[in-house]
Amino acid sequence: xxxxxxxxxxxxxxxxxxxxxxxxxxxxxxxxxxxxxxxxxxxxxxxxxxxxxxxxxxxxxxxxxxxxxxxxxxxxxxxxxxxxxxxxxxxxxxxxxxxxxxxxxxxxxxxxxxxxxxxxxxxxxxxxxxxxxxxxxxxxxxxxxxxxxxxxxxxxxxxxxxxxxxxxxxxxxxxxxxxxxxxxxxxxxxxxxxxxxxxxxxxxxxxxxxxxxxxxxxxxxxxxxxxxxxxxxxxxxxxxxxxxxx
Amino acid sequence: xxxxxxxxxxxxxxxxxxxxxxxxxxxxxxxxxxxxxxxxxxxxxxxxxxxxxxxxxxxxxxxxxxxxxxxxxxxxxxxxxxxxxxxxxxxxxxxxxxxxxxxxxxxxxxxxxxxxxxxxxxxxxxxxxxxxxxxxxxxxxxxxxxxxxxxxxxxxx
Lengths: 246, 157
Prior knowledge:
heterodimer, A: alpha+beta, 6-stranded mixed beta sheet, globular, B: CATH 2.40.50.180, 10 strands, 45% strand, CheW (chain B), CheW-lke_dom (chain B), Chemotaxis protein CheW (chain B)
Protein backbone atom coordinates (compact mmCIF):
# COMPACT_ATOMS: atom_id res chain seq x y z
CA UNK A 1 0.00 0.00 0.00
CA UNK A 2 1.27 3.41 -0.84
CA UNK A 3 2.40 5.54 2.01
CA UNK A 4 2.49 8.78 0.08
CA UNK A 5 0.74 9.93 -3.00
CA UNK A 6 1.96 12.43 -5.52
CA UNK A 7 0.24 15.78 -5.09
CA UNK A 8 -0.96 15.64 -8.70
CA UNK A 9 -3.01 12.51 -7.99
CA UNK A 10 -4.46 14.08 -4.88
CA UNK A 11 -5.65 17.02 -6.96
CA UNK A 12 -7.03 14.71 -9.62
CA UNK A 13 -8.97 12.73 -7.05
CA UNK A 14 -10.24 15.89 -5.43
CA UNK A 15 -11.38 17.14 -8.82
CA UNK A 16 -13.11 13.83 -9.51
CA UNK A 17 -14.80 13.91 -6.12
CA UNK A 18 -15.89 17.47 -6.71
CA UNK A 19 -17.26 16.56 -10.13
CA UNK A 20 -19.12 13.58 -8.70
CA UNK A 21 -20.54 15.71 -5.93
CA UNK A 22 -21.67 18.29 -8.49
CA UNK A 23 -23.46 15.60 -10.47
CA UNK A 24 -25.21 14.36 -7.37
CA UNK A 25 -26.11 17.85 -6.22
CA UNK A 26 -27.59 18.64 -9.59
CA UNK A 27 -30.31 16.02 -9.26
CA UNK A 28 -33.56 17.99 -9.42
CA UNK A 29 -35.77 17.94 -6.38
CA UNK A 30 -38.61 16.29 -8.32
CA UNK A 31 -36.39 13.45 -9.48
CA UNK A 32 -35.18 12.91 -5.96
CA UNK A 33 -38.72 12.53 -4.69
CA UNK A 34 -39.60 10.06 -7.43
CA UNK A 35 -36.49 8.14 -6.55
CA UNK A 36 -37.42 8.19 -2.90
CA UNK A 37 -40.79 6.72 -3.70
CA UNK A 38 -39.50 4.06 -6.02
CA UNK A 39 -36.62 3.00 -3.90
CA UNK A 40 -36.30 3.07 -0.15
CA UNK A 41 -34.02 5.38 1.73
CA UNK A 42 -30.40 4.47 2.14
CA UNK A 43 -29.64 2.45 5.19
CA UNK A 44 -26.14 3.07 6.32
CA UNK A 45 -25.54 -0.18 8.07
CA UNK A 46 -23.96 -2.58 7.91
CA UNK A 47 -21.03 -0.64 6.66
CA UNK A 48 -17.38 -1.14 6.53
CA UNK A 49 -15.74 2.16 5.99
CA UNK A 50 -12.87 2.57 3.65
CA UNK A 51 -11.14 4.37 6.45
CA UNK A 52 -11.21 1.18 8.58
CA UNK A 53 -10.27 -1.18 5.79
CA UNK A 54 -8.53 1.05 3.35
CA UNK A 55 -8.85 0.09 -0.26
CA UNK A 56 -9.15 -3.59 0.36
CA UNK A 57 -11.03 -3.93 -2.86
CA UNK A 58 -10.18 -1.04 -4.98
CA UNK A 59 -6.49 -0.38 -4.88
CA UNK A 60 -3.51 -2.19 -6.24
CA UNK A 61 -3.45 -4.38 -3.13
CA UNK A 62 -6.16 -6.44 -4.76
CA UNK A 63 -5.93 -10.20 -4.23
CA UNK A 64 -4.64 -12.16 -7.20
CA UNK A 65 -7.24 -12.72 -9.83
CA UNK A 66 -8.62 -16.14 -9.07
CA UNK A 67 -12.13 -15.59 -10.14
CA UNK A 68 -14.62 -18.14 -11.24
CA UNK A 69 -13.95 -17.93 -14.94
CA UNK A 70 -10.79 -15.86 -14.90
CA UNK A 71 -12.62 -12.60 -15.22
CA UNK A 72 -10.81 -9.52 -16.27
CA UNK A 73 -9.58 -7.67 -13.22
CA UNK A 74 -11.83 -4.78 -12.46
CA UNK A 75 -10.34 -1.44 -13.20
CA UNK A 76 -9.69 0.11 -9.82
CA UNK A 77 -12.41 2.48 -8.84
CA UNK A 78 -11.95 5.99 -7.63
CA UNK A 79 -11.65 5.00 -3.99
CA UNK A 80 -8.01 4.79 -3.05
CA UNK A 81 -5.88 5.77 -0.11
CA UNK A 82 -5.63 9.09 -1.86
CA UNK A 83 -9.40 9.42 -1.89
CA UNK A 84 -9.59 8.39 1.72
CA UNK A 85 -7.06 11.06 2.51
CA UNK A 86 -9.02 13.62 0.56
CA UNK A 87 -12.24 12.46 2.14
CA UNK A 88 -10.93 13.06 5.62
CA UNK A 89 -10.95 16.71 4.71
CA UNK A 90 -14.64 16.42 3.92
CA UNK A 91 -16.51 13.97 6.20
CA UNK A 92 -19.67 14.11 4.09
CA UNK A 93 -17.73 12.95 1.08
CA UNK A 94 -16.24 10.10 3.08
CA UNK A 95 -19.67 8.75 3.89
CA UNK A 96 -20.79 8.92 0.29
CA UNK A 97 -17.85 6.89 -0.91
CA UNK A 98 -17.45 4.36 1.85
CA UNK A 99 -20.84 2.74 2.41
CA UNK A 100 -20.13 -0.81 1.37
CA UNK A 101 -21.64 -3.90 3.03
CA UNK A 102 -19.24 -6.32 4.59
CA UNK A 103 -20.02 -9.13 2.19
CA UNK A 104 -18.63 -7.08 -0.66
CA UNK A 105 -15.17 -7.25 0.86
CA UNK A 106 -14.68 -10.96 0.31
CA UNK A 107 -15.62 -13.68 -2.13
CA UNK A 108 -19.34 -14.28 -1.77
CA UNK A 109 -21.99 -16.64 -3.03
CA UNK A 110 -24.64 -14.99 -5.11
CA UNK A 111 -28.00 -16.06 -6.39
CA UNK A 112 -28.56 -15.27 -10.05
CA UNK A 113 -32.20 -14.72 -10.92
CA UNK A 114 -34.34 -13.32 -13.66
CA UNK A 115 -36.89 -10.54 -13.36
CA UNK A 116 -38.79 -10.18 -16.60
CA UNK A 117 -35.90 -10.34 -19.10
CA UNK A 118 -33.29 -8.92 -16.74
CA UNK A 119 -30.73 -11.12 -15.01
CA UNK A 120 -29.69 -9.95 -11.57
CA UNK A 121 -27.49 -11.28 -8.78
CA UNK A 122 -27.72 -10.83 -5.05
CA UNK A 123 -25.53 -12.22 -2.26
CA UNK A 124 -26.98 -15.25 -0.53
CA UNK A 125 -26.24 -13.75 2.87
CA UNK A 126 -28.95 -11.18 2.26
CA UNK A 127 -31.58 -13.85 1.68
CA UNK A 128 -33.13 -16.34 4.05
CA UNK A 129 -34.84 -18.58 1.51
CA UNK A 130 -36.90 -18.63 -1.64
CA UNK A 131 -40.47 -19.83 -1.83
CA UNK A 132 -42.70 -20.82 -4.68
CA UNK A 133 -45.24 -18.17 -5.46
CA UNK A 134 -48.25 -20.42 -5.26
CA UNK A 135 -50.76 -17.90 -3.94
CA UNK A 136 -51.75 -14.35 -4.54
CA UNK A 137 -50.56 -11.92 -1.86
CA UNK A 138 -53.30 -10.23 0.18
CA UNK A 139 -53.45 -6.67 -1.02
CA UNK A 140 -53.42 -3.85 1.52
CA UNK A 141 -55.40 -0.80 0.39
CA UNK A 142 -53.66 2.51 -0.09
CA UNK A 143 -50.20 1.13 -0.78
CA UNK A 144 -47.97 1.84 -3.79
CA UNK A 145 -48.33 -0.42 -6.81
CA UNK A 146 -44.92 -1.97 -6.16
CA UNK A 147 -46.15 -3.34 -2.85
CA UNK A 148 -48.08 -6.38 -4.02
CA UNK A 149 -49.40 -7.44 -0.62
CA UNK A 150 -48.73 -9.80 2.26
CA UNK A 151 -48.10 -13.53 2.33
CA UNK A 152 -48.03 -15.62 5.49
CA UNK A 153 -45.20 -18.12 5.44
CA UNK A 154 -44.00 -20.13 8.45
CA UNK A 155 -45.28 -17.64 11.02
CA UNK A 156 -43.75 -14.75 9.10
CA UNK A 157 -45.80 -12.06 7.42
CA UNK A 158 -43.89 -11.23 4.30
CA UNK A 159 -44.44 -8.05 2.32
CA UNK A 160 -44.23 -9.03 -1.35
CA UNK A 161 -42.61 -6.47 -3.65
CA UNK A 162 -42.65 -6.06 -7.40
CA UNK A 163 -38.91 -6.21 -8.08
CA UNK A 164 -39.32 -4.88 -11.59
CA UNK A 165 -41.02 -1.70 -10.42
CA UNK A 166 -38.55 -1.18 -7.60
CA UNK A 167 -35.69 -1.38 -10.05
CA UNK A 168 -37.06 0.45 -13.05
CA UNK A 169 -39.59 2.71 -11.36
CA UNK A 170 -43.29 2.74 -12.05
CA UNK A 171 -43.02 4.67 -15.29
CA UNK A 172 -40.54 2.35 -16.98
CA UNK A 173 -41.44 -1.00 -15.52
CA UNK A 174 -44.11 -3.27 -16.83
CA UNK A 175 -46.72 -3.17 -14.09
CA UNK A 176 -47.34 -6.78 -13.36
CA UNK A 177 -50.78 -8.21 -13.01
CA UNK A 178 -50.16 -11.32 -10.96
CA UNK A 179 -53.25 -13.01 -12.31
CA UNK A 180 -52.22 -12.57 -15.93
CA UNK A 181 -48.50 -13.16 -15.46
CA UNK A 182 -47.78 -14.82 -12.14
CA UNK A 183 -44.24 -14.71 -10.84
CA UNK A 184 -42.39 -17.93 -10.27
CA UNK A 185 -40.73 -17.48 -6.90
CA UNK A 186 -40.28 -15.05 -4.06
CA UNK A 187 -36.83 -14.29 -2.66
CA UNK A 188 -37.22 -13.77 1.08
CA UNK A 189 -34.91 -11.29 2.74
CA UNK A 190 -32.71 -12.24 5.66
CA UNK A 191 -35.05 -10.56 8.18
CA UNK A 192 -37.99 -12.47 6.65
CA UNK A 193 -40.03 -9.32 6.31
CA UNK A 194 -39.86 -8.77 2.57
CA UNK A 195 -40.12 -10.88 -0.52
CA UNK A 196 -38.95 -9.94 -3.99
CA UNK A 197 -40.75 -11.65 -6.83
CA UNK A 198 -38.75 -13.13 -9.66
CA UNK A 199 -39.54 -15.04 -12.81
CA UNK A 200 -36.77 -17.59 -12.65
CA UNK A 201 -33.97 -18.64 -10.38
CA UNK A 202 -30.97 -19.36 -12.58
CA UNK A 203 -28.02 -20.45 -10.46
CA UNK A 204 -25.80 -19.87 -7.48
CA UNK A 205 -22.25 -18.77 -8.17
CA UNK A 206 -19.22 -17.42 -6.37
CA UNK A 207 -18.19 -13.86 -7.00
CA UNK A 208 -14.85 -12.39 -6.07
CA UNK A 209 -14.65 -8.71 -5.25
CA UNK A 210 -12.14 -7.96 -7.98
CA UNK A 211 -14.49 -9.43 -10.57
CA UNK A 212 -16.96 -6.71 -9.83
CA UNK A 213 -17.11 -3.11 -10.86
CA UNK A 214 -18.37 -1.62 -7.62
CA UNK A 215 -20.40 1.52 -7.30
CA UNK A 216 -19.01 3.34 -4.34
CA UNK A 217 -21.07 6.52 -4.63
CA UNK A 218 -24.63 5.37 -4.41
CA UNK A 219 -26.89 8.20 -3.44
CA UNK A 220 -28.97 7.38 -6.51
CA UNK A 221 -30.09 3.78 -6.84
CA UNK A 222 -28.31 2.68 -3.68
CA UNK A 223 -29.41 -0.90 -4.30
CA UNK A 224 -27.26 -1.16 -7.43
CA UNK A 225 -24.00 -1.93 -5.74
CA UNK A 226 -22.01 -3.20 -8.66
CA UNK A 227 -21.80 -5.19 -11.86
CA UNK A 228 -20.22 -8.60 -12.38
CA UNK A 229 -17.70 -7.75 -15.07
CA UNK A 230 -17.72 -11.08 -16.89
CA UNK A 231 -21.45 -11.56 -17.09
CA UNK A 232 -22.37 -7.86 -16.99
CA UNK A 233 -24.91 -8.76 -14.37
CA UNK A 234 -26.09 -6.14 -11.92
CA UNK A 235 -25.58 -7.02 -8.26
CA UNK A 236 -28.49 -5.96 -6.10
CA UNK A 237 -27.98 -4.97 -2.48
CA UNK A 238 -31.34 -6.26 -1.28
CA UNK A 239 -31.17 -4.37 2.01
CA UNK A 240 -31.14 -1.13 0.06
CA UNK A 241 -33.86 -2.20 -2.35
CA UNK A 242 -36.55 -3.07 0.16
CA UNK A 243 -38.37 -0.36 2.08
CA UNK A 244 -37.97 0.20 5.76
CA UNK A 245 -41.00 -1.32 7.36
CA UNK A 246 -42.90 1.11 9.51
CA UNK B 1 -63.22 -10.88 29.30
CA UNK B 2 -62.61 -8.70 32.36
CA UNK B 3 -59.70 -10.94 33.20
CA UNK B 4 -58.34 -10.35 29.72
CA UNK B 5 -58.64 -6.61 30.15
CA UNK B 6 -56.77 -6.82 33.41
CA UNK B 7 -53.99 -8.53 31.54
CA UNK B 8 -54.00 -5.73 29.00
CA UNK B 9 -55.02 -7.96 26.14
CA UNK B 10 -58.69 -7.21 25.53
CA UNK B 11 -60.86 -9.26 23.21
CA UNK B 12 -62.62 -7.32 20.50
CA UNK B 13 -65.31 -8.40 18.09
CA UNK B 14 -65.01 -7.67 14.41
CA UNK B 15 -67.54 -7.94 11.60
CA UNK B 16 -65.76 -9.35 8.59
CA UNK B 17 -66.64 -8.65 4.98
CA UNK B 18 -65.17 -9.50 1.61
CA UNK B 19 -64.06 -7.38 -1.28
CA UNK B 20 -62.64 -9.45 -4.11
CA UNK B 21 -60.25 -12.02 -2.71
CA UNK B 22 -59.54 -10.09 0.46
CA UNK B 23 -61.27 -10.18 3.81
CA UNK B 24 -61.63 -7.10 6.00
CA UNK B 25 -62.76 -6.55 9.56
CA UNK B 26 -64.52 -3.60 11.20
CA UNK B 27 -65.28 -3.02 14.86
CA UNK B 28 -68.65 -4.58 15.67
CA UNK B 29 -69.48 -1.67 17.99
CA UNK B 30 -69.59 0.66 15.01
CA UNK B 31 -71.87 -1.52 12.90
CA UNK B 32 -75.53 -0.58 13.18
CA UNK B 33 -77.03 -2.96 10.70
CA UNK B 34 -76.41 -4.88 7.51
CA UNK B 35 -78.77 -4.34 4.58
CA UNK B 36 -79.39 -6.27 1.44
CA UNK B 37 -78.67 -4.22 -1.62
CA UNK B 38 -81.36 -1.68 -2.27
CA UNK B 39 -81.83 1.13 -4.72
CA UNK B 40 -79.00 3.61 -4.38
CA UNK B 41 -79.83 7.03 -5.81
CA UNK B 42 -76.79 8.68 -7.41
CA UNK B 43 -75.86 12.16 -6.24
CA UNK B 44 -74.81 14.57 -9.01
CA UNK B 45 -71.35 15.99 -8.48
CA UNK B 46 -70.49 13.58 -5.69
CA UNK B 47 -66.89 12.34 -5.34
CA UNK B 48 -66.06 9.08 -7.08
CA UNK B 49 -66.06 7.13 -3.82
CA UNK B 50 -69.71 8.06 -3.16
CA UNK B 51 -72.14 5.68 -4.80
CA UNK B 52 -75.20 7.61 -3.80
CA UNK B 53 -77.80 7.84 -1.08
CA UNK B 54 -80.42 5.51 0.34
CA UNK B 55 -83.50 6.11 2.40
CA UNK B 56 -83.14 4.26 5.65
CA UNK B 57 -86.43 4.49 7.48
CA UNK B 58 -86.80 8.16 6.65
CA UNK B 59 -83.12 9.03 7.08
CA UNK B 60 -80.86 9.80 4.14
CA UNK B 61 -77.68 7.75 4.36
CA UNK B 62 -74.71 8.16 2.02
CA UNK B 63 -73.32 4.94 0.61
CA UNK B 64 -69.57 4.72 0.00
CA UNK B 65 -68.09 2.65 -2.82
CA UNK B 66 -65.65 0.68 -0.68
CA UNK B 67 -64.00 -0.92 -3.69
CA UNK B 68 -63.25 2.52 -5.07
CA UNK B 69 -61.97 3.66 -1.70
CA UNK B 70 -59.62 0.68 -1.48
CA UNK B 71 -58.39 1.09 -5.05
CA UNK B 72 -60.05 -2.08 -6.27
CA UNK B 73 -61.80 -2.44 -9.63
CA UNK B 74 -65.55 -1.94 -9.54
CA UNK B 75 -67.89 -4.91 -9.62
CA UNK B 76 -71.57 -5.35 -10.34
CA UNK B 77 -73.62 -5.95 -7.23
CA UNK B 78 -75.18 -9.39 -6.78
CA UNK B 79 -77.21 -11.35 -4.24
CA UNK B 80 -74.31 -11.45 -1.82
CA UNK B 81 -73.71 -7.67 -1.90
CA UNK B 82 -74.51 -5.83 1.30
CA UNK B 83 -74.61 -2.27 2.57
CA UNK B 84 -73.14 -2.15 6.06
CA UNK B 85 -74.49 0.80 8.01
CA UNK B 86 -71.80 2.13 10.29
CA UNK B 87 -71.35 4.96 12.71
CA UNK B 88 -68.17 6.94 12.55
CA UNK B 89 -67.69 10.11 14.58
CA UNK B 90 -71.44 10.73 14.82
CA UNK B 91 -71.84 10.25 11.07
CA UNK B 92 -74.00 7.42 9.82
CA UNK B 93 -72.83 6.08 6.48
CA UNK B 94 -73.26 2.92 4.45
CA UNK B 95 -70.39 1.01 2.92
CA UNK B 96 -71.05 -1.29 -0.01
CA UNK B 97 -69.22 -4.61 0.26
CA UNK B 98 -69.21 -7.79 -1.85
CA UNK B 99 -70.46 -9.86 1.08
CA UNK B 100 -70.55 -9.95 4.84
CA UNK B 101 -68.89 -13.00 6.33
CA UNK B 102 -69.10 -13.35 10.10
CA UNK B 103 -68.33 -11.87 13.49
CA UNK B 104 -64.99 -12.92 14.93
CA UNK B 105 -63.38 -12.39 18.29
CA UNK B 106 -59.80 -11.35 18.46
CA UNK B 107 -57.31 -10.44 21.11
CA UNK B 108 -55.44 -7.18 20.71
CA UNK B 109 -52.19 -9.12 20.80
CA UNK B 110 -53.23 -11.00 17.67
CA UNK B 111 -53.28 -7.82 15.64
CA UNK B 112 -50.11 -6.82 13.87
CA UNK B 113 -49.43 -3.41 12.41
CA UNK B 114 -49.72 -3.50 8.65
CA UNK B 115 -46.56 -2.45 6.85
CA UNK B 116 -47.08 0.98 5.46
CA UNK B 117 -44.67 1.77 2.69
CA UNK B 118 -46.74 4.36 0.93
CA UNK B 119 -48.28 7.67 1.71
CA UNK B 120 -49.35 7.73 5.36
CA UNK B 121 -52.55 9.47 4.35
CA UNK B 122 -53.61 6.90 1.78
CA UNK B 123 -53.69 3.98 4.17
CA UNK B 124 -54.23 5.55 7.56
CA UNK B 125 -57.50 3.68 7.94
CA UNK B 126 -55.73 0.32 7.98
CA UNK B 127 -55.58 -0.51 11.66
CA UNK B 128 -53.68 -3.76 11.34
CA UNK B 129 -53.65 -7.27 9.99
CA UNK B 130 -54.09 -10.69 11.44
CA UNK B 131 -54.51 -14.24 10.23
CA UNK B 132 -57.81 -16.05 10.42
CA UNK B 133 -58.46 -19.50 8.99
CA UNK B 134 -55.27 -19.33 6.93
CA UNK B 135 -56.36 -16.07 5.41
CA UNK B 136 -55.15 -12.58 6.09
CA UNK B 137 -57.75 -10.35 7.73
CA UNK B 138 -57.25 -6.63 7.19
CA UNK B 139 -58.68 -4.55 10.02
CA UNK B 140 -60.14 -1.17 9.11
CA UNK B 141 -60.34 1.77 11.50
CA UNK B 142 -63.69 3.26 10.54
CA UNK B 143 -62.95 6.51 12.36
CA UNK B 144 -60.19 7.15 9.83
CA UNK B 145 -62.05 5.73 6.85
CA UNK B 146 -63.02 9.25 5.79
CA UNK B 147 -61.20 12.49 6.50
CA UNK B 148 -62.93 15.31 8.38
CA UNK B 149 -63.32 17.23 5.13
CA UNK B 150 -64.88 14.23 3.45
CA UNK B 151 -67.30 13.71 6.31
CA UNK B 152 -68.30 17.38 6.15
CA UNK B 153 -68.85 16.98 2.41
CA UNK B 154 -71.10 13.97 3.00
CA UNK B 155 -73.30 16.06 5.30
CA UNK B 156 -74.26 18.16 2.31
CA UNK B 157 -75.90 15.31 0.42
